[in-house]
Amino acid sequence: MARDRVLAANKILVGDCVEQLRNLPDKSVDLVFADPPYNLQLSTELLRPNNTRVDGVDDAWDKFASFEEYDRFTRAWLAECRRVLKPDGAMWLIGSYHNVFRLGSALQDQGFWILNDVVWRKVNPMPNFRGRRFTNAHETLIWAARDQKSRYTFNYESLKASNDDLQMRSDWLFPICSGPERLKDDGGRKAHPTQKPEALLHRILIGTTNPGDVVLDPFFGTGTTGAVAKRLGRRWIGVERDTDYVKAAEERIAKVKTLSTSSLETQPSKRTEPRVPFGALVELGMLRPGAPLYDERRRVRAEVKADGTLAVPGSQGSIHRLGAVVQGKAACNGWTFWHYERGGRLHPIDNLRERAKVALGLSGKQQRAEPLIAAE
Amino acid sequence: MARDRVLAANKILVGDCVEQLRNLPDKSVDLVFADPPYNLQLSTELLRPNNTRVDGVDDAWDKFASFEEYDRFTRAWLAECRRVLKPDGAMWLIGSYHNVFRLGSALQDQGFWILNDVVWRKVNPMPNFRGRRFTNAHETLIWAARDQKSRYTFNYESLKASNDDLQMRSDWLFPICSGPERLKDDGGRKAHPTQKPEALLHRILIGTTNPGDVVLDPFFGTGTTGAVAKRLGRRWIGVERDTDYVKAAEERIAKVKTLSTSSLETQPSKRTEPRVPFGALVELGMLRPGAPLYDERRRVRAEVKADGTLAVPGSQGSIHRLGAVVQGKAACNGWTFWHYERGGRLHPIDNLRERAKVALGLSGKQQRAEPLIAAE
DNA sequence: CTGAAGTTTGAATCAGACG
DNA sequence: CCGTCTGATTCAAACTTCA
User: Which of A7, A174, A292, B73 is the most buried (most CB within 10 A)?
Assistant: First the structure.
């Protein structure tokens, strides 16, 4: 089958994904990174609260008539990727809840062996403008070996060392791709609607490939995979149908310099300040619903509700909002304003937050969260 | 079909999941929470349709056969859950990468409408002992409405208020179930291998059910769903096959006390508050016909008409329509766009609506809250 | 030039009542 | 079932404007 197919790395194959993959030889690729269409199927336009329109993904390449058609497409390109992978090769997929369950099932059906699912937590996701769902603040990656027997690459020590000597977990925190990294077209608009951050590919390639490995991206887009692969001294192959994307990717990758063998960049981990919301104290049982809270001088008595709000007669809201309301002020830091009673004395609920941080592992020491106010 | 099936809540149905679900009436349940078996030991536990054992996992056909069997089981209990759900009902599933892709695909295939996938990030996950994978530090939840048209319950304001006035995101941080909350058997060993933390169910039930709702858990285990449902004033039904688990769950739930009705009051939503049409302000004499209204910066001047419409030269219509027209936008909330003048200053007409609610006796508890502490 | 203030934007299956 | 109309709703970061 593959007798006259030769692997030429560091180039983009222009054309249909499955057709182009057929031109690659069997067992020639170490890793596949695939960011396939998400099949979003947006129905109507979405307005922001200020009545401006959200520039959603409505490109033709993301349109599929049904799950059946999407599954058919998925099976076709997955099968080609599997053929092209070396026996010890592996694959990364990325998707959202719209498509990732189809991807994962198809992977398993074809004999891939899932090693982890990994969650990319977005520092700065787009909010949910209508207030009808949770903020969609993550995307899901699947890491799978070609089959159960594959001796896949995993640079455990590198990842651990770059993670303050803690095992790298399955939840990763990165900002979305914006700023200077985000490619723009001639008109100054985003060149690609779904450009992935280089930090994501950086961790993947450092963690699951070795220098010199061949990385295939069958949905190359504007070439994030190629750019990071080149920088990290990996070889790469991209497949992309859209010639505008191809042009942008080629120009982008041409500017990238390969790092010297010695200089192994450490992951710039953008840690956000650990935050404990008030509701967590209720959910964790540290404050019972019905428990009273007071201001410092006991002039106001409020009651904790099961939904994580606080109430006085005639008003209910967050600890901050209610603190502002009872004082007739515009704003209030509820953490220092409200107090719980213990041993006949009042303590700011901020103290509880410190203990919750410990329970949630957001501070150094590990201990258990005991209820501090007994049920009545 | 369901003519002689009666819904008896707050009890455990002992027996096979699908068989027991068949005894529940159609459209009787508000929410399903399901924590199905994870399919971890495919090769040893699962039988082929002809009851021969699937032995050996080396063979791709066996793996496929096993997934087939798991999918058949999944479709069977999901279909019963869908039948039992009210038209506006919803479902939560929880799983790991071993089974969650099968669950999500089956949900979509049966017509459920996925609203979010949610990631439970574990504070204290089990480390990966062999250092060959990422620490499996999360599990995945799927929240889905019965179908696309379902008007599902979502207590957006409660979740936001309990999260320091920020929208609740799709990534949740909770410790695994341990300490006193973890049920032990007579030998002091954990009574159930995968007991879920009550905090997880607390957030789910607060966020997506109302007091009095019926919550069904078809894989009840040691009854976390029932315990939290009872505490939060929701009704519950469990299905469990293992009589040891049933006994542990019954003892556990018997000890739980339901919170007082007042503790369960949720943050009221502006959406559910009674509506005051603009015309009522004119009828009540709060705005006289001919009165001028302005946008925030006085760039536009409109005039109130006796019929409750608003007019600028050349255009007339509702406060919303006219606000959109003068801005050249597709939509506009007239209540916040238009302002009336009083004491030389502009105030949004939304303020008048609040006063109209009081005048019309439509105001509930969330009325004009007076400061309880005098300004200093 | 600097900092404050305002604007733009990101893989989105994003409403509900009423006639 | 479908069209019409009211009116509820956003977070973090980058970028632009202006004092």
Answer: A174
